[in-house]
Specification:
Helix content is about 25%, strand content about 20%. With about 525 residues, the chain is an alpha+beta fold.
């Protein structure tokens, strides 16, 4: 294992990008415990004290929204989902443990492998005062089933809604769709009027959730409490998501009280507040992983070359020395906190001589030059990219690194051979991560399209609960054996929270739906 703190490697840049991938995500799992749901669980939101929301909560983020276009089905970024999770409702919701709970749907029942029946609440209203109807639900789901939007990857093609009464619907899939309930816990319900007139998404987000969209100005997205929310008014009046690109500026903003919560912090940030009783940390994290994304339309289409790179990079050393030991290193194409995670063989352990031998067997026995882009999205991204470049140099692979601003990185990542990024499941299920490598999405993100893998992915998606773990493992094993990309480490999401924020917690997903339960002292 190497100690990369000794400074004997190069200098540079790094990126992360979830936004770029944001074009495609997936659906989540179904277990026997979730086959039938009832409305016996209270809504997640709690009433504001004296019924009047008060105070301001400001998040410090390392990334801005992906676009000034507020259709949640068109994006997959961190801030996109933070906003969407508070402005919009879903049919089902998740609690802190990730268990599905009622939301706009008060009851649900899996009638067959292809049909879910749901009962809708009748007291929900959009922020413009119009009621949320079964026709709004149908419009929101049917358009994802049509397959043209980014979040269509969350559902199965052709999924649609039958309205059986003003408060009763059936969600129908053309084939068995074992992760349908998790998908229904993620898909946002929008006004049919906006879906019919999509230019409305340019003026802001309109939903039925506990917070209303106010503005996107400069680096701030601002929301305001919805006092008429069906689940009760939230406690905090104003919530702001602030983009601060520079890591040092972010931690300074927290320490000086300019922001209340830092999202997805680095080990350095955690060290800065250790022992400081003005702050605490929250690490309820979605299954997430740091990967070095490969483009398969160039040299990295060569299997032996990819396997050589896996052995040339000391993942354990990077996780210990650069990430401070906070992120486990998986032996799989899935993160260790993913449902159905299973350690796989071979380990692809750090072994320079084995890496050289594999390179000699590849189509590039004399080495190759790769282009890498980098930015500031992933914690420690620049340091890690430098180490990857230096590690590959020792087996004869040259890496040319180009540093980009976050926005440019997001829009161009798949034009470079390799770049660091983060993949996280928006639904909590591994289907979402495995879905990145399929068909059109695999082409867009990795220039990768493997029919054998497509069949494995489809099999785990359609599998019944009793055989799904094995089906997920089979798909993960195929990606791992082929080292479809470099699976560097988990990314455990740590948030640093000012003690003035009370009752703040998270669900193991991307968004912040539990913010409505928090309060702040002034």
């Amino acid at each position: 294992m190497s100690d990369y703190r000794k400074g004997d490697l190069g200098s540079s840049i790094l990126p992360q990008s979830r936004r770029s991938f944001l074009k495609t995500m997936a659906a989540t799992g179904l277990s026997s415990a979730t086959l039938v749901g009832l409305s016996s669980v209270l809504p997640a939101q709690a009433l504001a004290q004296d019924g009047v929301p008060a105070g301001t909560l400001t998040f410090g983020n390392a990334e801005p929204p992906t676009a000034n276009y507020w259709d949640p089905a068109a994006g997959f970024g961190l801030v996109d989902e933070q906003v969407a999770s508070l402005v919009h409702d879903t049919l089902l919701s998740h609690d802190e443990a990730g268990t599905l709970q009622p939301s706009l749907a008060t009851e649900w029942e899996l009638k067959s492998p292809t049909v879910v029946a749901l009962t809708l609440r009748s007291d929900a209203k959009f922020h413009d005062g119009t009621p949320v109807t079964a026709e709004d639900v149908k419009a929101s789901i049917d358009r994802l089933g049509a397959g043209s939007l980014a979040q269509a990857m969350v559902v199965t093609p052709g999924i649609s809604v039958n309205v059986t009464s003003p408060t009763a619907i059936e969600v129908v899939s053309p084939t068995a769709f074992g992760v349908v309930l998790s998908a229904l816990g993620f898909v946002k319900i929008l006004p049919k009027a906006n879906i019919d007139a999509p230019d409305n998404f340019k003026s802001g987000a309109l939903g039925s959730g506990p917070y209303k969209f106010v503005s996107y100005t400069g680096n701030d997205v601002t929301l305001e409490a919805n006092p008429d929310y069906w689940g009760g008014a939230p406690r905090i009046k104003t919530v702001t998501f602030r983009y601060i690109e520079d890591a040092q500026a972010r931690i300074n903003a927290l320490l000086s009280g300019q922001v209340d919560i830092l999202s997805r912090v680095s080990s350095d940030d955690l060290d800065r507040v250790q022992g400081n009783d003005e702050f605490h940390t929250v690490n309820i994290s979605p299954p997430a992983q740091i990967v070095a994304i490969y483009q398969h339309n160039g040299p990295l289409g060569d299997l032996k070359l990819r396997q050589a790179m896996a052995h040339a990079i000391d993942r354990e050393g990077i996780a210990k020395s650069i990430m401070g030991g906070y992120n486990p290193v998986p032996s799989s194409s899935l993160p260790t906190n993913s449902p159905f995670y299973t350690p796989l063989e071979p380990k692809f352990e750090y072994d320079v001589e084995k890496a050289k031998a594999l390179l000699a067997e590849s189509a590039y026995p004399d080495g190759v030059t790769l282009r890498m882009s980098t930015s500031t999205l992933v914690p420690h991204q620049i340091e890690i990219d430098q180490i990857i470049a230096a590690s590959l140099q020792q087996i004869g692979i040259k890496v040319e690194i180009e540093r980009l601003e976050v926005g440019a990185f997001r829009s161009s990542y798949n034009t470079y051979d390799i770049n660091l990024n983060t993949l996280a499941t928006f639904t909590g299920d591994p289907d979402f991560l495995l879905g990145f490598y399929t068909s059109d999405l695999g082409e867009a993100v990795f220039h990768y399209n493997d029919e054998t893998y497509n069949e494995l992915h489809a099999a785990q998606r359609a599998a019944t609960p009793d055989v799904r773990p094995a089906a997920v493992t089979a798909a993960a094993q195929y990606l791992w054996d082929n080292q479809a990309t470099l699976y560097l480490a988990d990314e455990v999401w740590y948030f640093i929270v000012n003690q003035r924020v009370e009752g703040y917690t998270r669900v193991p997903l991307i968004g912040e739906p539990m913010v409505a339960k928090a309060s702040v002292t002034t």
